[in-house]
């Protein structure tokens, strides 16, 4: 059974320009149910990840200040959200949703978090609206619990997964692969195990051809027994921040490549949603729902 972490409480930041990305977390589950792709039985509600779990990937000092809401003003500006207990609890719930999703993926081949993909949070910092790195924490958890030996993080958000790269720099068990807009945020990038920088304006065919080649190389180099997929839809031409020119079909073909690669390798995959900032919310939600639809088709649910 496909299992999906659903977060019942959503905290809307005060910045009006970022309201759409928050609303999508409510609309994605609703659309999945409306289209009959899943039922209520497919959803589970996570709880709050513990301090000990957060510290598997983040520095204890950073975790202490984050949980106490005492980060300095410079770090709060770097994160981009007004810091609050409710926002921190939401991030801890996202982390637990991804970790629980790992257990479900080990049982059922694939699982989803309706939020997450907070890949800009590094070991001792938050950044770019990311306080905690849900997939990095979950990857460290799998290794620590001996549930996986070799993990591959596939990050196809338009922005480099700099926080994930920072956390796993020099790590031989977690292989980070990021394919992103070379001239987009973050402007000072970390070094992933494998980075593919894309030119502005790249379209479907060039993107898919490059991804097919690079994805095969990432699987070969990582030899994973578990995969995390950061499935941001800010690669769309309609995205206000993306600078790439992919269509909705191109985005879906991207998902097909990832899921087929996991299916053929018989490797479980946990999926977090990542970014999406198109002008019209329907473009964001439709592209995200296509990711679920593609997984259902590939894995035969």
TrEMBL record:
The keyword Aminoacyl-tRNA synthetase does not apply. The keyword Cytoplasm does not apply. Gene3D superfamilies: Histone deacetylase domain. Residues 18-290 form the Histone deacetylase domain. It comes from the Bacteria. Keywords: Hydrolase. Signal peptide: none annotated. PANTHER family: HISTONE DEACETYLASE 12, HISTONE DEACETYLASE HDAC1-RELATED. Belongs to the histone deacetylase family. This is Histone deacetylase.
